[in-house]
Design brief:
Layout (H helix, E strand, L loop, with lengths): L4 E5 L6 H11 L3 E3 L3 E2 L14 E2 L2 H9 L3 E7 L2 E6 H10 L2 E5 L2 H10 L4 E6 L3 H11 L4 H15 L7 E4 L3 H17 L3
Helix pairs in contact: 1-7, 5-6
Bound molecules: guanosine-5'-monophosphate (5GP).
Length: 188
C-alpha cells in the first residue's frame, strides 16, 4: 500500500503553512516535504525547517539532474520538491503533504493523477493584501507582485478537488483535517 499525496496550493500569504502545521499536529503519519528554493531566507526562517536554501546555480544543476518531482519559478525565484524523499515516504506507506504553487501542482497532477489537490483561498483578495502587509516580511514591490500572482492563481481553483477558505483558522484546520480523514477512508 503506498501513501496518499496531498497537494496544498493557494496564494502567498493565505496561511498555508500555519494551516498545514496545525493539521500535522492532529494527523499522525503525515510527512511534510521541505522544498528547495533559491529565495533568500526571511528573518524567522530556518534552513532545513522552512526550506533548503540554495543558490540559483545549485538549483539549476538539481533541476537538470531530475532531482525534483516538480519545480517552478514563482515571484522570480525557483522552488522545487525533492523527488527521492517524497517517493521513499510514499513507498513506505506514509501520507505526504506538499505546499506548492499552482504551476507545480499542475506538473504533479500530470505525473500523479491520484494525488489529492486542495486549494486554500483567502476570504477576499483585500484580506489577502492586509495579511501580506501585516506579515511585514516583504518589500512593497514584492507585495504587489504577490497580489498580481494571487489574481492569476485564483483562476486555477477548478483544477483542484477541494477548496478551503481560510477565514477563521480553527474552522479551516477542521476542514483540512476532515478532507485528510475522508480521503484515508476512501475505497480506491
Ligand atoms: P514563499 O516565498 O512565500 O515562501 O513561497 C512562494 C510560493 O512558492 C508559495 O505559493 C509557495 O507555496 C510556493 N512554493 C513553495 N515551495 C514550492 C515548491 O517546492 N514548488 C512549487 N512549485 N512552489 C513552491
Amino acid at each position: 500500500m503506498s501513501g496518499l499525496l496531498f497537494v496544498l496550493s493557494g496564494p502567498s500569504g493565505v496561511g498555508k503553512s500555519t494551516l498545514r502545521k496545525e493539521v500535522m499536529k492532529r494527523c499522525p503519519a503525515l510527512k511534510y516535504s521541505i522544498s528547495y528554493t533559491s529565495r533568500a531566507p526571511r528573518r524567522d526562517e530556518k534552513e532545513g525547517v522552512d526550506y533548503y536554501f540554495v543558490d540559483m546555480e545549485t538549483f539549476e544543476e538539481m533541476k537538470e539532474k531530475g532531482e525534483f518531482i516538480e519545480w517552478a519559478k514563482v515571484h522570480g525565484n525557483y522552488y522545487g520538491t525533492p523527488r527521492r524523499q517524497v517517493e521513499e515516504w510514499l513507498k513506505e506507506g506514509f501520507d505526504v503533504i506538499l505546499e506548492i504553487d499552482v504551476q507545480g501542482a499542475k506538473q504533479v497532477k500530470k505525473n500523479c493523477p491520484d494525488g489529492i489537490f486542495i486549494f486554500i483561498a483567502p476570504p477576499s483578495l483585500k484580506t489577502l493584501e492586509q495579511r501580506l502587509r501585516e506579515r511585514n516580511s516583504d518589500p512593497e514591490d514584492e507585495i504587489l507582485l504577490r497580489m498580481t500572482n494571487a489574481h492569476l492563481e485564483m483562476q486555477s481553483i477548478r483544477d483542484y478537488n477541494y477548496l478551503v477558505v481560510n477565514d477563521v483558522l480553527e474552522e479551516a484546520v477542521d476542514k483540512l483535517r476532515s478532507i485528510i480523514i475522508a480521503e484515508r477512508c476512501r475505497i480506491r
